[in-house]
Amino acid sequence: MTATTEPPKGPPPGAKKPVGRMPKDLPKGYGPRRATIPAAYKLWMAAIVANLAGVMAAVYVAKIIRAVPADTGTETALLAVYYTFMFIAAVVDALWLDEVLFKGGFRRSHLQGQDGRQAQSGDVEEAAASMQRSSFSFPVLLILCGAATYFLFNFINNDFDNYYRRVGKHVTSLRGDDPAKASKRLAAIGELSIRREPSIVPILTGQLERGGEEAVWAAWALGRFSDVPAKRRRPLVEPLLTASRSEDPTVRREAIIALARLQYLAIGKQLKAELRSDIDNLSENSSIDLRLIYAAGHIQRMELVPLLEEVLRGKGSVEAQQTAAWALFQHIDQRDGRTVVPILEERLPAAPLAVRCAIVHSLGYTGDERSNLALVHAHNTATPEERKTRCGIVTFNLRPDGGDERVDLFMPRDTLEMKILQAMGQIRATSPEIRAAVEPWLVRLIEGATDDLLRTRAESLLAGIKTARDDREIKQIKAP
Description:
Elements: H1 39-66, H2 72-102, H3 105-111, H4 124-130, H5 134-156, H6 160-174, H7 182-192, H8 200-210, H9 212-223, H10 234-243, H11 249-261, H12 268-280, H13 290-299, H14 305-312, H15 318-329, H16 340-347, H17 353-363, H18 371-381, H19 384-388, E1 394-397, E2 406-409, H20 416-427, H21 432-448, H22 452-467, H23 471-478
Antiparallel strand pairs: 1-2
Helix pairs in contact: 1-2, 1-5, 2-5, 3-4, 3-5, 6-7, 7-9, 8-9, 8-10, 9-11, 10-11, 11-12, 11-13, 12-13, 13-15, 14-15, 15-17, 16-17, 17-20, 18-20, 20-22, 21-22
């Protein structure tokens, strides 16, 4: 029999040794490894994607909400998207920084559950990373990244968060026509009336065009923009002019008052008609709207003076007469404005005490020195009790519901005789004719005064007339 030979074990002579196989007993970490993408690079790319997506979402949401087309439910969803993207971007940024600064301590310890036992298996780097104080470092990184993301998003979308806090949340309240939410809408208009963002005027104009009670409040709100420069008032005037022709009398009146507050002089004729209507329809159950008289003082049209004189002479309440005195002296700088001085002086002797106080206060701002004679007469004809009476102020609110937009006229408060001296001190006496009447009167007042404060003020006024307005000094100044 022929013996069979077994083939030799192992590779044939001269054959190449297989590559990629290593003995099973080699320590961990030795031998060939697959090429892997570093975690820091992956997180860097994730941060870029998250931030870009967040920025696009932020810009889109801000644009939609500022455009005011969305309803309340849609806006809530948009805001949820906005802040969700902001949070995701902050978390991814914090993970990337944790990887770069702390070798991924938070990721290894809390997300992958690795701990210090990695050192026993030879992976020293992973073990060191897993032993980092990530419970402290990562929250700090997250807060810092959240703040940076917040400011980045707001910088890109033109400070949307501040806009929404100041304006946007009130705009949200204006949407819809639910009667149960009417008070909330009016309150929102009130809040917007004190803001000065460029987007507010179109919002209030839109409410003005809706009509009804909201239009009344919107007209009032636009009238509060009297503090903006004149060149920025045109967008306010045009919609108010349209509203001033409204068939709704409350909207019409509120628009007229608003235009007067904006000092739109051409509204004088319509304001005159409104005031005339209030005067003609006076009854026990009605009164003159003080806001109309106040508006007349703002536009200072001489065509309104006869109506104001009519009110001052007894038409309407005492408060209406006082307000008319204030409105009349506002006309003093207009052409023929000096004609208001004799109107005030003629009413002074027979007026109620409160109205006399208002007229005395008003004469002090006319700058007409002949009014000294009327003021002296007012003092002489007043009773001792009236002279010591503390003059009141006129207070009313400009808001449609009488709420808080307060106007205080004839401040500061003082007694009638102190008001008279104050007014005389403002207009002074310069001509010999007026001084001949005023100076002896002041001397008698000083001699008979029992009140130290009254005596001091009268002495100061007399000294000022004798020195600061001395005729000889005036002649020396005028001499060549």
